[in-house]
Description:
alpha/beta, 2-enoyl-CoA Hydratase, Chain A, domain 1, 17 strands, 7-stranded mixed sheet, 17% strand, 8-stranded mixed sheet, 20 helices, binds hexanoyl-coenzyme A
Amino acid sequence: MASTEERLKDLRNRKARSEAGGGQARVDSQHNRGKLTARERMELLLDDGSFQEMDALVEHRCKDFGMEKNVIPGDGVVTGHGTINGREVFAFAQDFTVYGGSLGEMHGLKICKVLDMALKTGRPVIGMNDSGGARIQEGVASLGSYAEIFFRNVRSSGVIPQISVIMGPCAGGAVYSPAITDFVIMVDQTAHMFITGPEVIKTVTNEEVSFEDLGGAMTHGSKSGVSHFTAVSDEEAIHLARELADLLPQNNMEKPPTRKTSDPKDRVCEKLDTIIPTESNKPYDVIDVINEIVDDGAFLEVQADWAKNIVIGFAHLGGNTVGVVANQPKFLAGCLDIDASDKAARFVRFCDAFNIPILTLEDVPGFLPGTSQEWGGIIRHGAKLLYAYAEATVPLLTVILRKAYGGAYDVMSSKHIRGDYNIAWPNAELAVMGADGAVEIIHRKRIANSRNAEEERTRLTEDFNDTFANPYKAAALGYLDDVIEPRETRSKLIRSLEMLMDKEELRPARKHGNIPL
Length: 517
Ligand code: HXC
């Protein structure tokens, strides 16, 4: 019979084999590519000494293709839990040094265990992906485990925050787990996501494209909108994941944590009085407006390089986390188009699911005209944003900075779709459409019959602007709760937000709505 000492030695050997992963040569190759190993990533993600590993001794049970002779305990993924600034999270990191991080049956089931524990205990999950995809030798058992993961991602959606960090390949159907999670962070140059790779594309469509152009961080951060953040290194990606987890509640039953600030709640923001150009068509950067209003000028922008005509991200107001949605007049004059609608709609739904109040800063000339928008389904996509706002029951604060025209006025958190605190600056313009278009429609005959058409058009346009290009008609109807001096914006918003923190609003019970996807 083995002595205690021998048993301990055996255990230590087993753990050491698990920790060694695919061996030093493969670890060196990982480092040479500028990538950290799975364990290094886990250590960096979690507070010092807080990582508690699970399933380090799990092994695959594949007997095909000689796999029975190649067993590495842990099976290519490091899983467990630990803390981020003292708050518990679950995490997994795929180990590219073991079978290329490919996902076999047991590897997949390890991830499933973490997802199950996270849901049971109401904790966020952070997944670090670095994998050749389905483990080819394990065939359908590998596909089965993938689907088990997808199912859990969907079941946890809106219950616990799920964050994916892509730090290597993520190909084929494997992309659908990150796609379902709330945030995708990609590392520039080393992360690649695609359904079919460059070689298959060449065969099928004859297109030639590099890995980077097809599915690199820049592509998904600026063209497809799949990714929410681009990081320059593993370290920066992990730092971002920590920052996000720090902002968010642990689950949908909690409010987000508050953050201490020395920024006075009643700070007068004099800069705001002149931040918007007097000419109503002149662009400006709405991020300057956000920075001026929020605590300590700190704004974490999400999807900064995609659909730039709308800005989304997180900030704090008087210590409370808020989600900010703002039209960006610097791009496409801040119009709503297909991508902007999708971007903002998903963000509004995320905030609503996790009890994060939404601050909407509105300066929108309307929906973007054009056949590409109409044929691309702007009706369907714009409806998502309307749906998301109308469905939201978190506190909704809306400031009309300048333009609020047409359907976009209704959609962007208006009083009518249950905005809680709707205010405007004195130069706000609320109307069905801009003066030029409106005058052409309602005064066409009058202009045509006048002696001097140009003069008449100018006079009627000015008249229209005097009547409608102000916030007072809406204020008189109670559609705006107040018209304020821009400098008062921060203090007014914080007072209202504090009042609204205990807001409770119910919607009729139903299985689920039918958002126009
Ligand atoms: C088993 C795999 C593997 C896989 C890589 N490896 N991918 N083993 N199953 N899917 C192994 C390699 O054999 C190699 O083992 C080691 O991992 C490293 O791979 P390399 O090719 O040497 O690395 P690199 O040159 O960096 O290329 C990485 C790669 C490439 C781009 C990921 O390996 C690759 O194209 N793999 C196949 C990707 C793929 O088509 N997967 C299936 C996608 S479909 P050794 O022992 O030599 O170190 C899919 C469906 C999911 O995933 C469906 C879910 C519904």
